Amino acid sequence: RLFQIGIEKLVIQRAFFISPNLVSSIANMAGSQSWESTLVKINNVTFSTTTFGTTTNVTDATGSILLYTRSAASFSGAAIPTGTSITAIVSDFNGVQLSARSANDVQ
Fold it and tell me: What distance in Å separates the CA atoms of residue 64 and residue 87, rounded to the nearest whole number?
């Protein structure tokens, strides 16, 4: 049973950190829904564009995957930081894709 609670009574007791699953290659994720809704980190990648737009391809030596950025995201249109790894949430919309949480997800 759920009860409505006023925000003034809400207390956060502790913060937690979710560690990403290290993915050895993009090819391991292709067509697999077992990764859906998980936080992953992929190393040794390149990006097809220099800014976070609606769609960007993330590529490693084994294949590529779509990085989707909502136009309403605070970092949409921002430059993709110089880096060779990405931490992102895996989703499935007409195929497996990634969603970055912020520009800081590129290291």
Answer: 15
CA–CA separation, 30 and 11 (whole Å): 41
* Distance (Å, whole) CA 56 – CA 34: 22
What was the pLDDT predicted at 5?
A: 64
Structure tokens at 17: 């950190």
Nearest Cα residue to 104 out of 55, 52, 38: 52
Report yes or no: 80 and 56 within 8 Å, Cβ to Cβ.
yes
Say how many Å lie between the first and final Cα of the chain, rounded.
Answer: 43
Give the pTM: 0.81
CA–CA separation, 83 and 10 (whole Å) = 38
pLDDT tens figures, 64-89: 999 999 999 999 999 999 889 999 99
Where does residue 86 rank: exposed (0-12), middle (13-18), buried (19+ CB within 10 A)?
buried
DSSP summary character for residue 7 = G
- pLDDT, residue 4, reads 67
